[in-house]
Structure prediction request, 242 residues.
Amino acid sequence: MYGIIKHLGYLDNRENWLEKTHASTYIQNAKLDRIFESWIGDNDSTSMTREAVECVIAAALDISYRIGKEHGFIKPFIRAVRSNSKMQTTKKWDSQWVSTINETKELIGYIARFHQWEPDNRHVIPNPTFKLSNSIGGAEADLIVGNTVVSAIAHQTFSHHDFHELIAYVLLDTDNTYGINRLTWVLPRRQTSLTVTTSELFRNLQQSRKEFKEMVEENYLLDDFNSTGDGIDLSKYNAKYC
Prediction:
């Protein structure tokens, strides 16, 4: 997900590409403004390795925000920020995370090649929630770009779950807050993307949303858990890097 956000920021010359993300919120709350500067590697902002490291840092910050404690990947970066120095890794850290950086580097290298974003409709909304989100545990999508709800799929295969997840987000937007008219699945491992329009999927979207809302209200009780928005789908974390 963060690879896509970073790429869109580059296309639109947005220096603060993390704006309004969970990663940005965590940086502000923990006073980690220098976290990207603490890396000991290549200082070239166009370096693919640096791009990958920044995406993994952002993903780890995102997860830290959600679970309420520091993710293992960013611990040496945070120590460096606190001591006003450059980060120092250990053999254990390298063995755990260097392969992730290299894999992320490969994945984000594909993003610019296989999907063309509309130049006049690239407003990014990260982690959007919907009118019915709290009723089912705080459901949130990866991001909305313009009028397109987007899912970043880090695994190799495209599953029924991946397909139905975006459809559910469209239906959760019962008051049409985002004006969603397209669904895009980005699959960097397969170097491809899939886009369908809501008109291709629904004969009458508003009627489908009405029926979906009735189903949710009938079958999902609004209890203390659901109302707090703590329903975190841990399986989605592996899509955060790209």
Observations:
- Confidence is low (pLDDT under 50) at residues 227-242.
- The radius of gyration is 19 Å.
- The first strand starts at residue 124 and ends at 126.
